[in-house]
Amino acid sequence: MSTPTDGHDLRHHGDAEVRDEGAAFVDLAVNVRTGTPPWWLQKRIADSLEGLARYPDGRAARQAVAERHGRSTDEVLLTAGAAEAFVLLARTAAPRRAVVVHPQFTEPEAALRNAGHTVDRVLLDAANGFRLDPVAVPEDADLVVIGNPTNPTSVLHPAGTLAQLARPGRLLVVDEAFMDAVPGERESLAGRRDVQGLVVLRSLTKTWGLAGLRIGYVLGDSATVAALERAQPLWPVSAPALTAAEACSAPAALAEAKEAAVRIAEDRAYLLGRIGELTCVEVVDQAAGPFLLLHMPGASMVRERLRANGFAVRRADTFPGLGPDWLRIAVRDRGVSDAFIEVLKKALEELERL
Predict the structure, then answer these.
(1) Same domain, 203 and 272
(2) Are both 235 and 270 inside the same structural domain?
(3) Burial call 328-343: b when 16+ CB within 10 Å, e when fewer
(4) What is the reported pTM?
(5) What is the CATH number for 264?
(6) What is d(CA 42, CA 217) in angstroms, rounded to the nearest whole number?
(7) Do 43 and 134 share a domain, yes or no?
(8) Among 36, 129, 220, 272, which is disulfide-ready with 199 (CB 3.0 to 4.6 Å)?
(9) How far apart are CA 72 and CA 63, in angstroms?
(10) Are residues 232 and 342 in the same domain?
């Protein structure tokens, strides 16, 4: 377990790396799929603007998401991105002992702390590839948060392992924001009703390029979903975002996402092969997400040299459990990966000469 005062900036996210001069960089810091949103989705969203004078009606989108996951509509809550879901959980839960499994996306812990909750951390070990042993989670924890696949490690935990975390009286929150980038969405718990206290969070940001639209959703039992919904303001999700949720849940969209996940896996395998050429760089193995976590001496200085040569990568020392020798990079196409590796080689050679 770690203390809450170890200096990690829980509110730092990848967009900070490209916020002011993003056009000047090849963006490997943000995990949104390139070339998105696709033209057909842009058109659906643009067409929805004709109805902006009307208050949003989320029924069709909620039904579409429910059908996509084999759930009933009262087990689905649409949110303004997965980030809103973390805030709603923090506001409605009253945990005696909240635990966040790190390294992972830091917004859940930030939301819990902002709501006045004390948060304990379970830190997974790089030595065993950041794999989860359920025994590491305290038995008396009544709120547990974990990502799958996990940002930033790209580790995909077995669904059976996560299900072992369920306990009577425990809320088990699994952040599946990147699950649709995993071919076949293997190890997803989104359709499971047999895991007690399970809440699954999803985002449409990454695969569909909708970070600016803010759309995600919660899947859980009807009582939990109802409690979260009561904490929402009226009309929390805009009409264009609702249109996107409905469109991205359609069979044709799911088929497109499946194809994209296969391409991402192929591009990730290629990038892993190129990184294997660098003897001083280690990568978390068996990665399953659209990003990789790298370990190298002097990573903070390497990051600055990469920026000087036009590549933005995500610093990883803001994640609890990681330090200044870690970087996260998004998976891109092979041309971008080749260019990145050449710049990375140059940066590492420069550091060796210092």
Answers:
(1) no
(2) no
(3) bbbbbeeebbeebbeb
(4) 0.96
(5) 3.90.1150.10
(6) 20
(7) yes
(8) 220
(9) 8
(10) no
